[in-house]
Every structure is written in structure tokens, then in C-alpha cells.
Amino acid sequence: MIKENKLGSTIMTARKKLGISQRELARRISVSNNTIARLESGERKRTNSLTLKKISYVLNIDYIEVLKQAGFTDEDIIWCNKK
Predict the structure, then answer these.
(1) Nearest 5 degrees, angle CA 15-CA 13-CA 46?
(2) Alpha carbon distances (Å) from 19 to 12, 14, 16, 58, 78
(3) 59-68 pLDDT, tens digit each
(4) Residue 7 near residue 66, CB atoms below 8 Å
């Protein structure tokens, strides 16, 4: 059974809509290209909230939705949103 990779799909769709490569997104948020590739492919299920916040900002997607898709709990989301 293959688990849906909603987070990866969301990131990839938004990135492609803006016409930027994985490498360019990685450069803009100061992470490795491998980090973006692993997030999009579903190999990396969870990453820190700051990286997700940067991705959300650059790709103009809802930060709270990205946190939910990454598996953060409601309590985690409340805490992350206070930062």
C-alpha cells in the first residue's frame, strides 16, 4: 500500500507553478537540493517548522496547511504559529 505524499505534491505543484527548480527553491531557503527532493518524493516525512515556513513563504502557500500535511499536531501548529 502506497501512502499519499500530500506534502510533497503540494510543494512540487506550487514550485512548478512558479517555474522554479528544486535547486532554486533550495537556494532561496538555504537548504540542500537533496532536502527539497526528499520532501517532494516523500522520503523525508517531517522537517523542522522553520524550513516549512520558508517554503510556504517562497511558494506562497498556506503555512498552516503545510504543517498539517507534514504531520504536525494541532498543539504543535499553535506553538509553531507563535514564532
Answers:
(1) 85
(2) 10, 9, 5, 12, 32
(3) 999 999 999 9
(4) yes
